[in-house]
Amino acid sequence: MSVQEDRVSGVAYESFGETPANNIASASTESSGDGVEDNSVIVLKIQASRRDRGTPVAGAIFIVVNACLGAGLLNFPAAFQGAGGNAVGVSMEVVFLVFGAVAALIMAYCSDLCRVSTYQDVVQTVCGHNTGILCDLAIILYTFGTCITFIIIVGDQVDKVMQWAAGPEFCYHWYMNRKFTMSVISILIILPLCIPKDIGFQKYASFLGVASILYVTVIVSVKYYTGGYPPADVVTSPKTFTDVFIAVPTVCFGFQYHISAVPVYASMRKRNLGSLAVVMFFAMVIAMLVYTATGVYGGLTFGSSVTSDVLLSYHANDVSVTIGRAALTLDILTSYPILHFCGRTVLDGFYVRWRRLSAEDNLRQEFVRRVVETMAWFWLSLFFAIMIPNIGLVISVIGGLAAVFIMVFPGYCLIQAVLLQQPSENVHKDRALLALGVLYVFLGTFILGENTALAIIDDLNGKNSLQQICTVT
After folding, report:
1. Is 0.85 topped by the overall pTM?
2. Are 73 and 294 in contact (CB under 8 A)?
3. From the CB of residue 310, how many other CB atoms can be counted at a distance below 10 Å?
4. Number of neighbours of residue 367 by Cβ within 10 angstroms
5. Most buried residue, 49, 84, 280, 336, by most Cβ within 10 Å?
6. Is 167 left (phi over 0), alpha (psi -120 to 50) or beta?
7. Beta strands in 324-377 (DSSP E)
């Protein structure tokens, strides 16, 4: 990737509100040759011309919160207890909150330098074509794993509803069995929502998602005081040093919003790092409060016996919890298509570039390709959801992968951005930024490897075995 001496035009400076030291975008567009960066430049120019109608700070905060909060919330009590108690869990949250917020600012800074508006385009433009392909594959794996988690959660909540309606022997009836109910609901509701080309009709799912997550947090907190559950054996300290890392996948999974952060930044009315810093501060405070309340009170209520899906630990006949299950299930059913759309878009773009399809061929083949990609995605995710016992195992794997988006790619982008620019007058600043980038890459790689290994070891030792709620022997 060659560095050119051309400067970005004054018009472009005004669009971004900043003055990059080098035209990284020009150098990187020359190396990729697929036109992705050119399209992003057009998008950003349109957005710059409409800054008065862009996303306000309050709106950006809501979008980031919605992208951050999700199904990983249910695993926080188990993660806190497994890591050695609430103090350890909350400490891990604070650490990753800071690292994650800084990473979002790094990616926003790089998006200004290279004039693109998506996470994957930043990586491709700054780090090169091959690294861009790795980023595409990582996004596909992450969104696919999250879709598996969604289906598992649907099965968990429907199990409890069936137990409430038919008693503890429900799953011995084939039409109430988890595999059957999970498959039928997914086929009838999720699959049709995944077929459309546009997901604009699901814009109201964001409000439903935040509302359901907040309701679950309130229920978990209130039930500690009013649920009448016996005193729990609460973990207060880790047995070994390695126990601390048990919470890392869940925390990474919970605070992974970076793929959405770059487009949010591109759409902001006041597009500058200061405004984004305000957005990140308030969004992370909200997310921290929600995750902490659920993790702490869920752990205090059930202690070390809490399940990987905390709602499964409550009585099946508890009406308020049942309402929470219904709201969460509805949110999951509408969230799966959104995650699928993100993954399918990257997958389809990867295929188009690989086959070097012309615009005419791309348009002609789009419908058939979309149906094939959707069907393959859906049936594979349903298969894995049926075969994998619970969300703990999936989160352990994709939580480690989330560290790649939080640390590895931002760190590498920062290193490349510093190296590609002309050396600044402050040599110590450049060295500090390089050191920060190296630290991010190292920590992210370590977390990915360590947590993937732990997930495999726990699975081989039977720690992720399915907790059957039927009581008939």
Report:
1. no
2. yes
3. 24
4. 11
5. 336
6. left
7. none
What is the rounded distance in angstroms from the CA atom of residue 364 to the CA atom of residue 428?
54
CA distance 323 to 301: 19
The amino acid sitting at 360 is E
| Beta-bridge partners for 268 | 55
Which letter does DSSP use for residue 408 in this model?
I
SS3 content of the chain, % helix, strand, coil (to 5): 80, 0, 20
**pLDDT at residue 240 in the model:** 81
Digit-coded pLDDT (tens) for 381-440: 999 998 876 677 677 778 778 889 999 999 999 999 888 876 767 788 888 999 999 999
Alpha carbon distance, N-terminus to C-terminus of the chain: 65
Other CB atoms within a 10 A radius of the CB of residue 404 amount to: 25
Three-state secondary-structure class, residue 243: helix
DSSP 3-state of 268: strand
CB 266 within 8 A of CB 117: yes
Contacts of 76 (CB under 8 A, 6+ apart): 89, 250, 254, 291, 294, 295, 298, 310
Other CB atoms within 10 A of residue 230 CB: 7
Report how far residue 456's alpha carbon sits from residue 454's, in angstroms, rounded to the nearest whole number.
Answer: 5
Tell the residue number behind the tokens 């050191």, with chain if given: 435
